[in-house]
């Protein structure tokens, strides 16, 4: 295989008083370990592994500079010498591997999830239940001092720098924008007054920490909300930040309340690096670009194209701690790529759980999910080559077991072979590629096109059933009509469907199918930005413009039996994107539906006591799945013990997060 090189990505960056080993910044992520008892030790192991993996500089999740700025009651903060001392376990772990790490200081402002929230003005955020108190002049000055003290404590804790969170709609951003700052004193009104708060914070921090300490400022370059900053204002603030003593400017894209997707898998790779490029040449300090950069090839291209001096990647370091080292060794094919699903990272954090990664369950569990060599040999049979099966097989082989993986089809990958064909889910092919590489590298014996028999399993010490799922067939009269297609057949064969299509079932798969059959022909980045109302000229405040609606020429109904919101999808942070996409394309979302029958006229339904005939040319069934357990009964009857994982264990919502984790946990326990 041809060895790739990444001269721009791997070039060192001289900051004057110190040097970064490459142009990669690991972006800030809250993991949930920050507040847990013993969590800092686990956090140290998490960041230490990324430092070992070669990242240039790490930025932690957000720590508040005072109690009122905390994200929620008892959230992580850096306010005392005790805090600083406790963080040594984190900084020492990073420095042990010659890494650098910066503590992010984040005051949540009106995004604080508690009744003592403060902001520039007393305006409640649309995503919060608490109306903040307007800060007095004394409270503003006190908060500036708190930022400076926290920065000094970070230095005492051994951090190489701090990042000031001035984007995503948090407190500093709230002062900057007229959307959330309606003051008429020295901290509001004109733009010069509104940026006074961030500049005073930077000056106070620089004075407290000295000249040889990294200050990163996360600058919101594209707010994506009404009454946000204009590009001219962003340039003005960036220049003033440089004068005030900032070392590096990091790019922030979109407030949390913005209704434009910025990091989900539907977002094209490197979709917002042009925003950072617009600031190049306006300041003389390094600029970091961000969002949906998930391979070294994309990162190298961004830097080689002159869009930025550095790239920030956050979730890709959940997926693979050794991303940079593998790139440097010419092993990009061995990188476990982030697929931007959000299911185990952001969705977990918003539920108050520990963050992890769908494709790498060991992320944030470095001290718990430990793969160690087995003291004894075993022969292990894994039946089913989907995500659960490959996860179990490769982990068992890594432990030194003799593993045979049986797959009835002609390829590995299971349901991900279908998922990767859905527009916006092309990234799933990266996970298949990674696990196939792992299968080869760990020495798993693979037998494709094989329906394994009970006799063939007699010589194995352990049998793992990972036989997946099959589409559930609902009891609807006419379900065998020629216009009916199950979702697996539709995705696999992609038959031509008519101009009127009814999709039965509005779970994650139903949403995917409705998206697939209404996908516009032009899927370029420019068209995607126009569809979501993003103005590339950033001529308007916040960078918004009227969105271009691309109604599908195909009439589509997305139906569910359950009453209430239709098309939620599996993820809290992505469900709204799916719904908005379908609505923009003219898909009719119907909940509380009873299915009567399917015939030549179409799909007969009852809705709110009324009888309707949807004149569908085709009806695609996405009514859930059933577990395929294959040999389970035979094994049980023969008295042979076995394990069931993945969809075979629980069909659910095709939960790859659970399937991959189950595979690793089971293999570790053998």
TrEMBL record:
Keywords: Flavoprotein, FMN, Iron, Iron-sulfur, Metal-binding, Oxidoreductase. Residues 378-633 form the FAD/NAD(P)-binding domain. CDD domains: DCR_FMN. It comes from Veronia nyctiphanis. This is NADPH-dependent 2,4-dienoyl-CoA reductase. GO terms for biological process: fatty acid beta-oxidation, unsaturated, even number, reductase/isomerase pathway. The lineage of its organism: Bacteria, Pseudomonadati, Pseudomonadota, Gammaproteobacteria, Vibrionales. Its cofactor is [4Fe-4S] cluster; FMN. InterPro entries: Aldolase_TIM, FAD/NAD-bd_sf, FAD/NAD-binding_dom, NADH:flavin_oxidoreductase, OxRdtase_FMN_N. In the N-terminal section; belongs to the NADH:flavin oxidoreductase/NADH oxidase family.
């Amino acid at each position: 295989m041809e060895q790739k090189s990444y001269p721009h990505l791997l070039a060192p960056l001289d900051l004057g008083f110190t040097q970064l080993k490459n142009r990669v910044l690991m972006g800030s992520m809250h993991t949930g370990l920050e507040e847990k008892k013993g969590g800092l030790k686990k956090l140290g192991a998490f960041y230490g592994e990324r430092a070992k993996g070669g990242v240039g500089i790490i930025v932690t999740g957000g720590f508040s500079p005072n109690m009122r700025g905390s994200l929620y009651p008892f959230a992580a903060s850096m306010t005392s010498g005790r805090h600083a001392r406790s963080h040594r376990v984190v900084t020492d772990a990073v420095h042990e591997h010659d890494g650098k790490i910066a503590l992010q200081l984040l005051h949540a402002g009106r995004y604080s999830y508690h009744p003592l929230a403060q902001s520039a003005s007393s305006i409640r955020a649309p995503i919060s239940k608490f109306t903040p108190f307007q800060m007095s002049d004394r409270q503003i000055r006190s908060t500036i001092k708190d930022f400076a003290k926290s920065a000094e404590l970070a230095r005492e804790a051994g951090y190489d720098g701090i990042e000031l969170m001035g984007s995503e709609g948090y407190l500093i951003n709230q002062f900057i924008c007229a959307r959330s700052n309606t003051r008429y004193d020295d901290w509001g009104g004109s733009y010069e007054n509104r940026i006074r708060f961030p500049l005073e914070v930077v000056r106070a921090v620089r004075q407290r920490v000295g000249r040889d300490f990294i200050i990163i400022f996360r600058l919101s370059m594209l707010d994506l909300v009404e009454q946000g900053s204009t590009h001219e204002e962003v340039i003005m603030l960036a220049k003033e930040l440089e004068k005030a003593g900032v070392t590096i400017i990091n790019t922030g894209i979109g407030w949390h309340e913005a209704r434009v997707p910025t990091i989900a898998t539907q977002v094209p790779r490197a979709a917002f690096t042009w925003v950072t490029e617009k600031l190049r040449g306006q300041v003389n300090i390094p600029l970091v670009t961000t969002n949906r950069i998930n391979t070294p090839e994309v990162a190298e291209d961004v830097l080689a194209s002159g869009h930025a001096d550095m790239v920030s990647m956050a979730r890709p370091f959940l997926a693979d701690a050794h991303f940079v080292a593998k790139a440097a060794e010419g092993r990009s094919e061995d990188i476990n790529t982030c697929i931007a699903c959000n299911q185990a990272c952001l969705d977990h954090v918003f539920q108050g759980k520990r963050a992890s990664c769908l494709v790498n369950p060991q992320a944030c569990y470095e001290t718990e999910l430990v793969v160690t060599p087995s003291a004894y040999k075993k022969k292990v049979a894994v039946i089913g080559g989907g995500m659960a099966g490959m996860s179990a097989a490769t982990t068992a082989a890594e432990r030194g077991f003799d593993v045979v993986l049986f797959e009835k089809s002609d390829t590995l990958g299971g349901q991900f072979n279908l998922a990767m064909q859905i527009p916006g889910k092309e990234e799933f092919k990266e996970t298949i590629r990674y696990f196939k590489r792992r299968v080869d590298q760990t020495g798993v014996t693979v037998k494709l096109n094989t329906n394994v028999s009970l006799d063939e399993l007699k010589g194995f010490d352990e049998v793992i059933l990972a036989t997946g799922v099959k589409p559930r067939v609902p009891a609807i009269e006419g379900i065998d009509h020629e216009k009916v297609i199950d979702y697996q057949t539709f995705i696999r064969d992609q038959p031509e469907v008519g101009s009127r299509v009814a999709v039965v079932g509005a779970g994650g798969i139903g949403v995917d199918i409705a998206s697939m059959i209404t996908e516009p022909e032009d899927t370029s980045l420019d068209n995607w930005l126009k569809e979501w109302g993003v103005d590339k000229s950033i001529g308007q405040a916040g960078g918004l413009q009227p969105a271009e609606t691309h109604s599908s020429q195909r009439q589509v109904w997305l139906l569910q039996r359950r009453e209430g919101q239709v098309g939620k999808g599996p993820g809290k942070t992505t469900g709204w994107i799916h719904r908005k996409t379908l609505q923009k394309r003219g898909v009719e979302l119907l909940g509380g539906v009873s299915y009567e029958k399917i015939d030549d006229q179409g799909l007969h339904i009852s809705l709110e006591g009324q009888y309707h005939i949807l004149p569908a040319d085709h009806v695609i069934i996405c009514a859930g799945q059933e577990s395929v357990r294959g040999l389970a009964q035979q094994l049980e009857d023969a008295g042979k013990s076995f394990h069931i994982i993945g969809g075979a264990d629980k069909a659910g919502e095709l939960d790859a997060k659970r399937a991959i984790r189950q595979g690793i946990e089971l293999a570790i326990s053998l």
